[in-house]
Design brief:
Blueprint lengths: L3 E6 L6 H14 L6 E6 L5 H8 L4 E5 L16 H5 L5 E4 L2 H6 L4 H13 L3 E6 L3 H5 L3 H13 L4 H9 L3 E4 L13 H18 L1 H6 L1 E5 L7 H5 L6 E4 L6 H22 L11
Parallel strand pairs: 1-2, 1-8, 2-3, 3-4, 4-5, 5-6, 6-7, 7-8
Helix pairs in contact: 1-2, 7-9
The structure holds phosphoenolpyruvate (PEP).
C-alpha cells in the first residue's frame, strides 16, 4: 500500500534562526508517524542547515528546483548533482510559479527532471491547470499535455530511474495555489485518477506504486477530506508548511487516513460462529 507523502514547499521564505525553530519542532513531533513520509523543500542556501539539523531524523529534505544544465558557464544555476551533495532526497520540478514567472516550458521541466533522476533525486513533478483552462473545460487536456513528458518523454533508461527513485507527481491546480481556495475532494480525486490512468498507459505496476500528491491551499481543515480519497497520496504544502502546527497536524491527518485505508483494505478476520 502506498505510504502518504507530505512535502513543504518553503518558496522564498526562511532565515537561519526561524528555520532552526521550525525544523526542530518538526523533528520533535514527527517521528514514529505510521504510513507517512514527511519532507521539506527549502531555498538552496538553507540545504546545509537542513542537512545538519535533519540528518538523524525521519524528515527528508529537498530543493525547489534544479538546473536543466549539468555543468558549465551558467551563472547562478544550481545543478542536481550539487544539491544531492547536501543529502537532498527530493526536488520539485515544474512548479507553476516557475512556469509562470520564469516561463519554464514542459521541455525544460523534462530536462530538469532527467538531471534530478541521474543525480539520484526523487523529482516531484508538478502539473495543473489555470482557472481559465478549467472554466474552458480544458483541465484534463492541459494536465495530459504536461504528463506526456513523463509518460512518453522519458526513454526506457530514464523511466527505469523514475521507478527506482520513486518519482512523485503533484497535481496543483494553479487557481488553488496560495489563494485559500482548494479543489474539492471529488475534483482532485478525478484528476488524480486520470493521472494514474495515464501512467498505466506506459506501466501498470508503476501506476499502482507512484504517489500522486495534491497541492493548492491544503490546510488542517480540508486535509482529511482530500487525503482520504483513494488516489490522493499526500500533499504539497506552501503556506501550511511554514506554520509548524499546521504542517504537523496535516502529517498526523495523513497518518490517520493511511491507517483507515489499511484497515479497509485488509481482509476481515473470520467472524466466529457460535452454536446456539
Ligand atoms: C505550492 O506552492 O505548491 C502550494 C500548494 O502553495 P499553497 O499550499 O500555499 O497553496
Amino acid at each position: 500500500m502506498r505510504q502518504k507523502l507530505v512535502v513543504g514547499n518553503w518558496k522564498l521564505h526562511g532565515g537561519l534562526l526561524e528555520n532552526q525553530g521550525l525544523l526542530n519542532r518538526l523533528k520533535q513531533e514527527l517521528h514514529d508517524l505510521l504510513g507517512v513520509d514527511a519532507a521539506v523543500c527549502l531555498p538552496y542556501v538553507y540545504l546545509f542547515q537542513a542537512q545538519a539539523l535533519l540528518q538523524d531524523s525521519s524528515i527528508a529534505w529537498g530543493a525547489q528546483n534544479v538546473s536543466q544544465y549539468t555543468e558549465g558557464a551558467f551563472t547562478s544555476c544550481i545543478s542536481a548533482k550539487m544539491v544531492a551533495e547536501f543529502g537532498c532526497s527530493y526536488t520539485i520540478i515544474g512548479h507553476s510559479e516557475r512556469r509562470a514567472l520564469k516561463l519554464e516550458s514542459n521541455q525544460v521541466a523534462t530536462k530538469r527532471m532527467l538531471n534530478a533522476l541521474h543525480a539520484g533525486l526523487t523529482p516531484i513533478f508538478c502539473v495543473g491547470e489555470t482557472l481559465d483552462e478549467r472554466d474552458g473545460d480544458m483541465a484534463e487536456l492541459i494536465v495530459r499535455n504536461q504528463m506526456l513528458n513523463v509518460v512518453y518523454g522519458l526513454d526506457d533508461e530514464a523511466f527505469a530511474l523514475a521507478k527506482k527513485f520513486n518519482m512523485v507527481i503533484a497535481y496543483e491546480p494553479v487557481w488553488a495555489i496560495g489563494t485559500g481556495e482548494h479543489a474539492s475532494p471529488d475534483q482532485a480525486q478525478r484528476m488524480h485518477a486520470f493521472i494514474r490512468m495515464m501512467i498505466a498507459e506506459r506501466d501498470r505496476d508503476f501506476a499502482d506504486q507512484i504517489r500522486i500528491v495534491y497541492g493548492g491551499s491544503m490546510t488542517p481543515q480540508n486535509a482529511h477530506s482530500l487525503l482520504s480519497m483513494p488516489d490522493i497520496d499526500g500533499g504539497l504544502l506552501g503556506r501550511a508548511a511554514l506554520v509548524a502546527e499546521d504542517f504537523i497536524e496535516i502529517c498526523k491527518i495523513a497518518s490517520r487516513c493511511y491507517q483507515q485505508k489499511k484497515v479497509f483494505q485488509e481482509p476481515m478476520a473470520a467472524v466466529p460462529v457460535f452454536e446456539a
